[in-house]
Amino acid sequence: MSDTRRRVKVYTLNEDRQWDDRGTGHVSSTYVERLKGMSLLVRAESDGSLLLESKINPNTAYQKQQDTLIVWSEAENYDLALSFQEKAGCDEIWEKICQVQGKDPSVEVTQDLIDESEEERFEEMPETSHLIDLPTCELNKLEEIADLVTSVLSSPIRREKLALALENEGYIKKLLQLFQVCENLENTEGLHHLYEIIRGILFLNKATLFEVMFSDECIMDVVGCLEYDPALAQPKRHREFLTKTAKFKEVIPITDSELRQKIHQTYRVQYIQDIILPTPSVFEENFLSTLTSFIFFNKVEIVSMLQEDEKFLSEVFAQLTDEATDDDKRRELVNFFKEFCAFSQTLQPQNRDAFFKTLAKLGILPALEIVMGMDDLQVRSAATDIFSYLVEFSPSMVREFVMQEAQQSDDDILLINVVIEQMICDTDPELGGAVQLMGLLRTLIDPENMLATANVRKCKGKTEKSEFLNFFYNHCMHVLTAPLLANTSEDKCEKDAVVGSNKSNTICPDNYQTAQLLALILELLTFCVEHHTYHIKNYIMNKDLLRRVLVLMNSKHTFLALCALRFMRRIIGLKDEFYNRYITKGNLFEPVINALLDNGTRYNLLNSAVIELFEFIRVEDIKSLTAHIVENFYKALESIEYVQTFKGLKTKYEQEKDRQNQKLNSVPSILRSNRFRRDARALEEDEEMWFNEDEEEEGEAVVPPIEKSKQEDDFPDSYEKFMETKKAKESEDKENLPKRTSAGGFKFTFSHSASAANGANSTNNKSVAAQTSPASSNGSSSKNTNLTTAVTAAKQGSLVGLVDYPDDEEEEEEEETSPRKRPRLGS
């Protein structure tokens, strides 16, 4: 049976009160003739053998626990449990059991957990009597007491009775006096019995008994009893650890004696739960639930008492931020706060809010700023943990602090920049701290948790989102991207382009730790592309960021190349024509195609990711990118036939070309010379003249007017200026970068594709115009101005499949003359 609802583990309780796993199978309830009744059957999922066959007796007490457990006793000392994979399966079988016993399935226990003889015995006794007679507390009775305590654990009713008896007679203190006698006499047998007794009393799970056992007077003797586990050859030395090794550090002296006592008690009880007692199995969790609650409420009380003592907290903050405080003291103060914040997680939400507001009021954030910039690694790590509690509690509170701080401080010492610098300077080879900090930064810059309403107090009417993102991109983004820009610097890339397409010349971070860091930064930038719209768009354009990121496609660390590719994929995934024009103008597919061809025939993640990128463009039919890829790279890609992606792109391109031609043919000839509805293969002479005159104005309009959205209207002009400067620089270098054949066509010199080189060999040294269409020569044959025929014709050919934008002529022309074009493809 493959039904996961009925999938169960079968457990039996062994003599040591530990649950043994009998196997996993599927449970059913059916009538078994041999047992003369409805029974529970479990067949093993491995071989179908019978793991359990148990008749549902009308008088057996079945218990349902934690929604997925059913526990019952078959005989005096034979307890069984079924642990279900799903709650639905547990409910189904529970209903069957209740049906047989005539009970309502809403009950948790089907029978009272005491047998009839006990019921008769207790029935007539007054409630105040002791329901269990405890043996006298003497050395020779210890074995009897141990047997009694362990025997009642399986019956909740008898546990209650025993707890009441122990409480009423002050029995625990008498037992602990016996412990001291046994230890003095070195009575090992007695000490072993006392271990069983004290452990059993803990498992009674009664808060009133815990109050006695964990009092200052008794707790060390309780720990002493638990040292003498009969299973160990030598007793443990827990008391020695608690009294000598574990030191109570008071960063600021605590004057409240009750608070000190609570802190000591909580530490010791936590030690008992975590270190001394064995880890409870899934069925024993309830045994110690009261112990967990005891610790929990102690922590709540400690946090509340400390929080109310503002004098104490003020003193801690004063010392934390005081330059005169020595490093050891500061380390202790930071560790105190870290533990304080960890304790605060136990508070109810409204109390936790009050706690963090108290910390904010006292100045936790400026204090953290100082501490996070310190050299001590342990202090920085603890400060990061505290910062993560604050960000998790209220990202808005942290954002508000850093924006206010920006008005009074330099960028270098802003809290967010301190965090970014810690991320960049993480010395851990695996960058554990950097990963944590990156997660916190992502939370802070995530618009999903920013307030959508205007910030009334500042009366500017700006939302938190617009205000914070403006701040982040103006003051912090340059710090975040600095390592990325430093490792992909422009002069290195230029040098490589001149040398040729030898991969080893590209300067890429080969250091694993640097590569890890750049991958983290790229992950954050990819998140920004997805969530920050025009802020990141503006940044990418101004810094020509995508070109720099794509340098990393040459990294020997494939994970870093994939991060760079993922960044580009996310940009293309937005299907934003603004980005598309930036990619085509900058010829930014070239590093991706180089990486694909350098990868050769290897079928790996890089290969699949690159092909998925092109497949997305094909499926989504992004026309401008399709045209750019086919016109510039199809020769290099046509040999890739193990997927139909590139042939599909060519088909889409040709279909669009035909569609444009049909549209033009249906327009009256008088309109065809209109600039907005031109036929790329039939340019009029005067129109061509117009292009030549217009060349000087190239590169001014990055965004065509019809494309500008409201968000983009207020974009600064810095990108256009950047492109103009770049163009001027490129024209100076033009002579040093011979990339064209004599006819103006580009050579493809990929080492991986022999067919790619054939596209421009000397035997076919004709103009691209002639190769494209005989029609194109009509308009250009008589024209011999400073534009060559080949460039004009190439331009004409490349215009066909593009989206019809008013500025296409200038942009295509600039693309042709740009010496950056295909540095890896150039001869």
TrEMBL record:
Biased composition (Low complexity): 751-765, 772-789
GO cellular component, as recorded: nucleoplasm; protein phosphatase 4 complex
Gene Ontology terms for molecular function: protein phosphatase activator activity
Record domain PP4R3 EVH1-like: where: 5-101
Any single biological process term in GO: DNA damage response
Disordered, as annotated region: 687-827
Biased composition, class Basic and acidic residues, residue ranges: 707-738
SUPFAM superfamilies: ARM repeat, PH domain-like
Domain of life: Eukaryota
Serine/threonine-protein phosphatase 4 regulatory subunit 3-like central domain ranges (all copies): 144-655
Listed Acidic residues bias regions: 687-700, 805-816
Family the entry assigns: Belongs to the SMEK family.
Listed name of the protein: Protein phosphatase 4 regulatory subunit 3B
Gene: PPP4R3B
